C-alpha cells in the first residue's frame, strides 16, 4: 500500500477526526506524506489548488467543535479555493432535526506570503438554515455569496484586524491537499 492509501486507510472512519483514536499514527502518516510532496511550490500550481475540496480529517477544535451543538451532528465540510479572486469559502453542513439542517460558512481572502504559505483574512460569516436559504450544494451556495446575496438570520462582516491567520500547503497533488494552520491544526482534503 502506498503512503497516500495508507493515510486514507488510517483516517477512514474517524468522522473527520471526531472519532480518531490513534492520532499519533495518523500524524506520523501525514508527516511522511508531506515529506513526499510532489508539488514543492504549491501556490504556483494554481490549477491544482483551485477548486472545491472536501475535508477528510482535521485536528481543528474549531471545526470539530461544531459537532457539540445540541440536536446537531457535523455533516460534510468543504473548502472552495478560487485562485483568480484570491478567495476561500469554508462551508460546514450541520445535520439535525428535520427543518433545522444548517450551514456555517466563513469567507476569506488570501495573499501569498511564501511559496507554500498564504495569509488569510476572514471577511464574512454566515449561519443559516439550509431549507430557509434553499441550500442545494456548496457550488450553488458560493455562487449566491459571490452575487452578494444576503442570508438570514446571521450574515455579517468580520473585522479583518482581529480575525486573520495563515495556512501552509504542505502536500498537493491532483486530488489531495494537506495544510497546516497558524493554530497548529492539520487539514487533509480531497478534491470533489
How would you describe this structure to a colleague?
By secondary structure, the chain is of the alpha+beta class. α1 (3-11) runs antiparallel to α2. The protein is globular, with a radius of gyration of 16 Å. It has an eight-stranded antiparallel β-barrel with strand order 1-2-3-4-5-7-8-9. It has helices at 3-11, 23-35, 46-49, 61-64, 138-146; strands at 51-58, 72-82, 87-96, 102-112, 117-129, 154-157, 164-172, 176-181, 186-191. It has one domain (3-191): Lipocalin. Helix content is 20%, strand content 41%. A hairpin with a 4-residue loop joins β8 (176-181) and β9 (186-191).
Query: What is the share of helical residues?
Result: 10-25%
SSE pattern, N- to C-terminal: HHHEHEEEEHEEEE
Judged by helices, strands and strand pairing, the structural class is: alpha+beta
Number of separate domains: 1
Q: How large is the share of residues in beta strands?
A: 35-45%
Cα distance spanning the termini? 23 Å
Please tally the helical runs, counting DSSP H or I stretches of 4 or more residues: 5
* DSSP, total strands: 9
Strand order of the largest sheet: 1-2-3-4-5-7-8-9
Low-confidence region ranges: none
- CATH architecture descriptor text: Beta Barrel
Residue-averaged pLDDT: 93
CATH topology: Lipocalin
CATH class: Mainly Beta
What is the molecular shape?
A: globular
What is the CA-based Rg, rounded? 16 Å
Main sheet makeup:
8 strands, antiparallel, barrel
